[in-house]
Amino acid sequence: MRSGKAWGARGVAVAIGMGLLAACGNKDGAKAPPPPPVTVLQVQPAPMALQVEYVGETAGFREVEVRARVSGILLKRTYTEGETVQAGQLLFEIDPAPYQAALDQAKGGLAQVQAALNKAKADRDRMVPLYARNVVSRRDYDDTIAAYDAAVANAQSARARLKEAELNLEYTKVTAPIAGVTSKGVQSEGSLISANSGVLTTISQFDPLYVNFSYSEQDRLNLERLLRDGTLKQAPEQDWPVRIRLADGRLYAQTGHMNFSDNRVDSRTGTIRARAIFDNHDGQLLPGQFVRVILELGTLEQVLQVPERAITQSQADRVVLVVGADDVVEPRTVQLGQSSNGMVQVRSGLKAGERVIVEGVLKARPGSKVMPTPATAAPAGTPAAG
Predict the structure, then answer these.
(1) Which of 134, 167, 320, 364 has the fewest C-beta atoms under 10 angstroms from its C-beta?
(2) pTM above 0.90, yes or no
């Protein structure tokens, strides 16, 4: 009986031991996790549209401040604020009564001096033959000629005063110097205004429209370096296409071009002022809008480029992960160049034909194996905002 109990205890111990061994054997024999899947892009030299983007502000092609040229009571405003007016259209009327009176007075003054001129001319015409026959003295002759010259001068002054009076009367009607859209009126009817009263309204011409922006001195130096290296194939500066992105993210339908670049650097900001011009037939753009200016500088010839998302930061270096032999991940420190359309130029650190991880970067570890899948979208050549 004891012998049976002892064997039973030993059997239980053996069974437990075998179970532990089996458990250990299953643990050691578990399969390792598969390599993480990643998407790779095989880099090849390809053209790259070089674009830069700046903040710009729209401005009217011409903006004119309408001011009074004579003093008086503002009788009438003849336009609706914010409407389009034509060049020469009447905008304001100033009380013309004082200027009409001044014009009448100038006409009367001219008539008086004209009568005096006629008499002086007649005296001269009589005096000349008499002096020629020595009938009159030299003094009388000189006095007659001097009186005639004075009458001529007085007539010229009177005609000038008449012209001034006519202009002042004409200036009581304030007209639009250009065609465009008016702003809010500043002075109301009944106000006493003068040439020093300030702006009555502002007229802006919207078609075409300017877009003002500035680019950095560093951008200019980079562009000159690319041209010296022969890397950039560039159109003439006046033919650079310019696009603008509106506040809602849409691209404006019309393409403009640069028509001005300053010849000096602003010492306060280190930037250079520039301007582009756009057609604005439908009036979609208004002065004072902030837009994103997309400037197409040319095409970089046969450069290696990778998507921006494939680049990671390692302290002061920029790193991309390359899938090498046997699908093992290798980190590469790269030197980057220009960026455009979500792609970045790689100046050094990569070779043509290498596979760069563009998706699944966080899953990949240097020295570990991955399961690469080729990217389906071609990266290069499509121009868009950088």
Answers:
(1) 134
(2) no
* pLDDT tens by residue, the chain, 386 residues: 444 444 344 443 434 444 444 444 444 556 778 899 999 999 999 888 888 889 999 998 998 999 999 999 999 999 999 888 999 999 999 999 999 999 999 999 999 999 999 999 999 999 999 999 988 999 999 999 999 999 999 999 999 999 999 999 999 999 999 998 898 888 888 899 988 888 999 998 988 999 999 999 888 888 888 888 777 877 665 567 899 999 999 999 999 998 898 989 998 988 999 999 999 988 889 889 999 999 888 888 888 999 999 999 888 899 999 999 889 999 999 999 878 778 898 989 999 999 999 999 988 899 999 999 998 754 444 443 33
Three-class secondary structure assignment of the chain: CHHHHHHHHHHHHHHHHHHHHHHHHHHHCCCCCCCCEEEEEECCCEEEEEEEEEEEEEEEEEEEEEECCCCEEEEEECCCCCCEECCCCEEEEECCHHHHHHHHHHHHHHHHHHHHHHHHHHHHHHHHHHHHCCCCCHHHHHHHHHHHHHHHHHHHHHHHHHHHHHHHHHHCEEECCCCEEECCCCCCCCCEECCCCCEEEEEEEEEEEEEEEEEEHHHHHHHHHHHHHCCEECCCHHHCEEEEECCCCCECCCCEEEEEECCCCECCCCEEEEEEEECCCCCCCCCCCEEEEEEEEEEEEEECEEEHHHCEEECCEEEEEEECHHHEEEEEEEEEEEEECCEEEEEECCCCCCEEEEECCCCCCCCCECEEEECCCCCCCCCCCC
- Smallest CA-to-CA distance from 306 within 351, 343, 361 is with 343
d(CA 368, CA 112): 111
Q: How far apart are CA 345 and CA 337, in angstroms?
A: 5
Distance CA 380, CA 226 (A): 19
| Angle subtended by helix axes 97-132 and 138-171, to nearest 10 | 160
